[in-house]
């Protein structure tokens, strides 16, 4: 593929806006450290499979940290998004319950945080209708994340829901007036779309530049998550069979790590560029033991990949032991998981109903 000047311009614009998003995230983190009370966060994930070490280190620990810092925390299980790029829903109900168990076992406290499924919140979904009138078709077609998801479906046609799910995601964020959205970089186009929708709604219905805008303008909150790879040195993902899942036990974890890809050099060194697989195991062990990867490499010296795998296995199993114990307790108690979800859904419905009332008033539909 050739690089046109247009591509170069787009790339440099993306880099500049990414740098701005990181800078903004740092400002927000500093403000949270001072006083978390002005902040409400909403984040979420699709219940498409078991959560793994990458999710735990990159996402869940960060959510728990923000919750513990005093941010009002809302966690969405995006069950409707499961059908954006696939036909069936799989064992959806079980996955949702497992996900709630994963969240709580990883430190999300249902007494302080709200966990909910968006399919259970009618008023949230109703916001999608006015929001759809505020976006253009070409804008939707330009969304790079939607394009990437379509490309990943092997020639599947674009569905109406795939094309418009960023608008649905805007409803996820705006219904509860969240002002921070912890997400990965791939979600930035959706946050930008959400800000535009909030702005356009208030402008169209005469609330912009007044002291009573209906919506807040949310910011993405990016974090410098460690880049953990799967046991084959590729991106960690369930479909590749290279993940260490929270649901696995210590033996299954040992088995996964024993077959991890390494290289032939017996002297273990931390060199992510030239030795990505060995360095990934060092990185995992380093996070789990809170030592530097270099220190662990020195410790192993010329004892080879086998010793590295043993060390990484013990470190991961020790780190995850309390999470797994809690998780096992939770999955054995479906009634409790449902209770958490029902309470979360009730809280989400109360917020969504109030927001929809404001939207109806702004739109002169308050009969
Ligand atoms: N699209 C997100 C993902 O695939 C999940 C999601 C749905 C989300 N709604 C959201 C994330 C709102 C943040 C805010 O991971």
Write a structural description:
This protein is mostly helical and 367 residues long. The chain folds into two domains: 5-227 and 335-362, 3-Layer(aba) Sandwich (Rossmann fold), CATH 3.40.50.620; 248-331, Tyrosyl-Transfer RNA Synthetase, CATH 1.10.240. The chain has helices spanning 5-34, 53-68, 92-105, 122-126, 128-132, 137-142, 144-151, 160-174, 188-204, 250-258, 276-289, 293-300, 304-331, 334-362, and strands spanning 40-45, 72-77, 113-117, 180-182, 219-221. Strand 2, helix 3 (92-105) and strand 3 form a beta-alpha-beta unit. The longest helix is centred in the first third of the chain and has 30 residues, at 5-34. The model has no long low-confidence stretch (mean pLDDT 94). Residues 42-46, 76, 78, 81, 169, 172-173, 181, 183, 187 line the site of tryptophan.
Topology:
Layout: H1 5-34, E1 40-45, H2 53-68, E2 72-77, H3 92-105, E3 113-117, H4 122-126, H5 128-132, H6 137-142, H7 144-151, H8 160-174, E4 180-182, H9 188-204, E5 219-221, H10 250-258, H11 276-289, H12 293-300, H13 304-331, H14 334-362
Bound molecules: tryptophan.
Task: Please name the defining characteristics of this protein.
2 domains, binds tryptophan, Tyrosyl-Transfer RNA Synthetase, globular, two-stranded parallel sheet, 367 residues, mainly alpha, Rossmann fold
């Amino acid at each position: 593929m050739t690089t046109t000047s247009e591509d170069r311009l787009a790339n440099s614009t993306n880099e500049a806006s990414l740098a701005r998003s990181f800078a903004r995230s740092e400002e927000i983190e500093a403000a949270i450290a001072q006083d978390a009370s002005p902040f409400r966060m909403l984040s979420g994930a699709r219940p498409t499979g078991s959560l793994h070490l990458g999710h735990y280190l990159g996402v869940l620990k960060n959510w728990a940290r923000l919750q513990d810092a005093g941010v009002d925390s809302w966690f969405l299980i995006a069950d409707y998004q499961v059908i954006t790029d696939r036909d069936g829903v799989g064992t959806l109900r079980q996955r949702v319950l497992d996900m709630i168990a994963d969240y709580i076992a990883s430190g999300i406290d249902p007494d302080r945080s709200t966990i909910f499924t968006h399919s259970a919140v009618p008023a949230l979904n109703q916001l999608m209708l006015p929001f759809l009138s505020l976006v253009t078709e070409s804008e939707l077609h330009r969304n790079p994340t939607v394009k990437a998801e379509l490309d990943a479906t092997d020639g599947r046609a674009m569905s109406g829901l795939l094309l418009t799910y960023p608008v649905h995601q805007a409803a996820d964020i705006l219904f509860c007036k969240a002002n921070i959205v912890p997400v990965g970089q791939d979600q930035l186009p959706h946050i930008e779309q959400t800000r535009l929708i909030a702005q356009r709604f208030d402008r169209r219905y005469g609330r912009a530049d007044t002291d009573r805008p209906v919506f807040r303008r949310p910011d993405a909150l990016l974090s410098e998550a460690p880049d953990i790879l799967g046991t084959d040195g590729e991106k960690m993902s369930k479909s590749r069979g290279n993940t260490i899942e929270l649901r696995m036990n210590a033996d299954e974890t040992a088995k996964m790590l024993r077959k991890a890809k390494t290289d032939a050099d017996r002297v273990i060194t931390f060199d992510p560029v030239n030795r990505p697989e060995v360095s990934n195991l060092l990185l995992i062990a380093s996070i789990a033991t809170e030592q530097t990867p270099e220190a662990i490499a020195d410790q192993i010296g010329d004892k080879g990949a086998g010793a590295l795998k043993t060390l990484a296995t013990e470190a991961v199993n020790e780190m995850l032991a309390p999470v797994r114990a809690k998780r096992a307790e939770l999955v054995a108690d479906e009634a409790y998981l449902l209770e958490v979800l029902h309470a979360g859904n009730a809280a989400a419905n109360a917020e969504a109903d109030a927001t929809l009332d404001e939207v109806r008033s702004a739109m002169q539909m308050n009969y």
